[in-house]
Amino acid sequence: MLPEILYMDVPQGTLTSTADGNALTAEGSSAYYLPEQDVDGAVSRTQTRSLLLQPPPGPITMTRIPVTPPRVPTPVPEGE
Amino acid sequence: MATRSLTSTAVAGKRRILIVAIVLLMAGLLITTGWSVMADIVPAPVIVPGGIYTGVLGSPAGPYIVTTSVIPMDPAGNKMILIMRADNSDPTFMSKEPPSGEADHLMDYVGNMVRTGPDTWDYSGIAYGTKKVEGQRCCPKSCTWTSRRER
């Protein structure tokens, strides 16, 4: 059997980037929904009701994992 | 004769001060006008973040480790896809009450970001808390996948 969906968490808020794009700070809150399943057990977001609005968890700052630039292969001169 | 010379020197000094003041005033006007004109012409640099970000959020249950993928949907970064995974999440949100207290898995958050300023975006997303259902765990015989080795 497929796992049963018990709830839906819908966070929303604001993301702010540093000038170099290497860090993102997220702020916001989360709405928490319980699914109301229809007779077939299908769940849709329109069939949900809000249970509670979670308090903002506080800002979180995330740092970008450094990315190694792609290595461009050196073209081989014709005739070699 | 001496008095006349002193008077002319004083007048020349005042003229010099007046000329310097006018020059400074003109320079100031030019700089401020030029600056404002340049500010109108040169757009602010557009920040387009993208890649994989990691962070830690403090919670009553301990540090919450988050890994986030940000994928721009256009070169200007006005719309972006956001995928966030809480690596050591508590799917029950620290709740012992059903139904969240019964969840045993929290799926990744998926959502999007929409630009609201040079360095800000509004985001929204969705994630599901799920629970394994006891009982039949295998696919019916007709749906069983076979590996290449079994063929």
Which key features would you list for this structure?
heterodimer; A: four-stranded antiparallel beta sheet; 4 strands; 0% helix; B: 151 residues; six-stranded antiparallel beta sheet
What does this structure look like?
With 80 residues, chain A is an all-beta fold. Chain A contains no helices and four strands. In chain A, strands 1, 2, 3 and 4 form a four-stranded antiparallel beta sheet that branches. The mean pLDDT of chain A is 77. Chain B has 151 residues and is of the alpha+beta class. In chain B, strands 1-2-3-5-6-4 form a six-stranded antiparallel beta sheet, with no helix packed on it. In chain B, strand 1 (51-57) and strand 2 form a beta hairpin. Chain A binds chain B through residues 1-19, 21, 23-24, 26, 28, 32, 34, 45, 54, 57-58, 60-65, 67, and chain B through 45, 47-59, 66, 68, 70, 93, 99-100, 102-103, 105-106, 109, 111, 113, 116, 119-133, 135-137. Strand 4 (60-64) of chain A pairs antiparallel with strand 1 of chain B.
For the biggest β-sheet of chain B, the strand order reads 1-2-3-5-6-4
Helix/sheet category of chain B:
alpha+beta
Shape estimate of chain A? elongated
Give helix and strand order of chain B, one letter per element, not per position. Answer: HEEEEEE
- How do the helices and strands follow one another from N- to C-terminus of chain A? EEEE
Shape of chain B: rod-shaped
Given the helix and strand composition of chain A, which structural class is it? mainly beta
Largest sheet of chain A: 4 strands, antiparallel
Q: Quickly count the helices of chain B.
A: 1
Distance between the termini of chain B: 123 Å
Helix content of chain A: under 10%
Assembly status: heterodimer
Q: What is the average per-residue confidence, as pLDDT of chain B, rounded to a whole number? A: 81
Q: Into which percentage range does the β-strand content of chain A fall?
A: over 45%
- The low-pLDDT segments of chain B are none
Radius of gyration of chain A: 23 Å
Number of helices of chain A: 0
Greatest interface and its participating residue counts: A-B, 37 and 46 residues
